[in-house]
Write a structure and sequence with these properties.
Layout: E1 8-12, E2 23-27, E3 31-35, E4 58-64, E5 68-77, H1 81-94, H2 102-110, E6 123-124, E7 126-132, E8 137-143, E9 147-151, E10 158-159, E11 180-185, E12 191-195, H3 197-200, H4 213-222, H5 227-231
Antiparallel strand pairs: 1-4, 2-3, 4-5, 5-6, 5-7, 7-8, 8-11, 9-10, 9-12
């Protein structure tokens, strides 16, 4: 079945390795996702790639139902194993269990650890967000420098999570035990954006010349705050 027909979507970077190609998909009626390895084959970030045949080490998950929505992104280096395994496992959990609160969400993180050694040095950022439509509130967990931004139509974009330089390893339960938690409120019509530093550091390690909050606001406004049009 096409991902366009589903209310959930899992995208793994190993399936999207071509430079200069940008893939975007609607998820249900109210969400969308996009993935790209980028266009700069000479980026300094190449030195962190484990396998030249798998240059895209990102992964993302979207689950969107009538009652709630879940979003997760991960940005690995030294191999895609950690980002792919952790996001894929979280996606499978979300399809069966809805996180009820921040503490419950943190317990889910602890059970993302792989049961078998990977024999890899792969490690990843991991950002996951859950939003309850009835209460208009949500919560999330963050490891590393990916971002969660609420874009309201009458206010500047608000970055909700605190970013840091930690990484999670799929073999190390301890690396998943203390993510940074956060809570937020979003009104109907607000956009909830999760993205890796490939957006706000698209010029590697120079965020000041990369995409800024004002750019995000302009894109969202120009897209009519439509999720698919925004990520496309």
């Amino acid at each position: 079945m096409s991902p366009m027909a589903e209310n959930n979507l899992l995208l793994l970077g190993k399936d999207y390795p071509t430079y200069g190609v940008f893939d975007s998909f609607p998820v249900g009626e109210r969400s969308a996702a996009a993935i790209s390895v980028g266009s700069d084959v000479d980026s300094p970030s190449q030195r962190f790639k484990e396998d030249p045949l798998v240059p895209n080490e990102d992964a993302l998950s979207v689950v969107d139902t009538d009652d709630w929505a879940g979003f997760a992104v991960a940005d690995a280096h030294y191999g895609p194993e950690s980002s792919h395994m952790l996001v894929e496992r979280l996606h499978r959990i979300w399809l069966q269990i809805r996180p009820t609160d921040l503490q419950h969400f943190a317990q889910m993180f602890e059970f993302l650890r792989n049961g078998e050694p990977q024999l890899t040095r792969s490690e990843t950022t991991l950002l996951a967000v859950a939003y309850d439509r009835a209460s208009r509130t949500g919560f999330g967990l963050s490891i590393g420098d990916s971002s969660f931004v609420v874009v309201g139509q009458n206010q500047p974009p608000l970055t909700v999570n605190q970013r840091d330089m930690r990484f999670a390893n799929a073999d190390d339960r301890h690396s998943l035990a203390r993510p940074r938690g956060f809570e937020f409120r979003a009104e109907p019509g607000d956009l909830l954006l999760t993205f890796t530093d490939g957006i706000d550091e698209c010029h590697y390690r120079t965020p000041e010349t990369s995409i800024q909050p004002a750019d995000i606001a302009a894109v969202a406004s120009g897209a009519g705050y439509d999720p698919l049009a925004t990520v496309t």
